[in-house]
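Lecture notes, unit on protein representations.

Consider one protein chain, 349 amino acids long.
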Amino acid sequence: MTTLTARQLLFTGPRRVELGEEELGPPGAGEALVETELSAISAGTELLAYRGELPADAPADETLGSLRGATFAFPFRFGYASVGRVAAAGPGVDATWIGRRVFAFQPHATAFRAPIADLRPVPAEVPSERAALLAQMETAVSLILDGAPLYGERVVVIGQGVVGLLATALLARFPLALLAAVEARPLRAAAARALGAGAVLGGGAGTAGELQALLGERGADLVYELSGDPAALDLAIAAAGHEARIVVGSWYGARRAAVDLGGRFHRRRLRLLSSQVSHIGAPLGARWDRARRFDEAWRALGALGALDALPLVTHRFPIDRAADAYELLDRQPEKVLQVVLECSGAPRT
């Protein structure tokens, strides 16, 4: 039977990552053994973990089997965007799975075992590099569902990391009156324009005034705060019109900021909504489940022609250079959109 020696990424302390090894035996009943090709780094959440800015006792993610029971107490494993091929199938698994390209919510590693139910076949038309963005696209789809943009609305997206860019690309397909993005980093700002933002503002000290000039007294109908910076909530409030929705998709971790919930927030009866991809909101639950949302995320990844002209993956690092990848994201984020780790080459025994 096939076994693999997996190299696994470990977060061992603030701004420290190392590689460990584990021999993976043959898959058990209902399981598959997968050799990883690519594993995408989710820069927002993972940088909080890398920097030690998440509560040590916080659950990593109770909704993902690969992370259930794990916390952010060092050392820990993390990551949730792996693409690979099934190398072996356990008892009860159809042999047609062997060789199939799959996506899995698995921590960064060169190989892993997982229940077959946790593997999602990659559509033939979606290349592996783009398939590695499934988790971010699922989040973007979830943000759109929670924000529920309407015909003719004016929408502002604050923050153009990969999730912000994907949300902008999806929103650009709606018949909106205005789609504006806020992003200080030139690489991300240029990507937002390429993906369909009608206006891109720089995110500096004068941005609130620029948004007011752009939106007028009526303000925005819908604002997404996706920057990861809790101070950006003030900008979202400043942009929002009367009874507008502000959807917060950022996870701020342990960071805090003073937020002005005085006159404008109170007088305009603004709605502040938290959007988190691990669960589907109750208003949608009668018609939507994760399978339907995954189907739409795959469809979006395959159908967004803008991603052909503008690949979001700007950097690829072999997994044994993962420390360099995280240092780049941490120290020079202005140079990066998406980083993926190249994981192929797990030794067979």
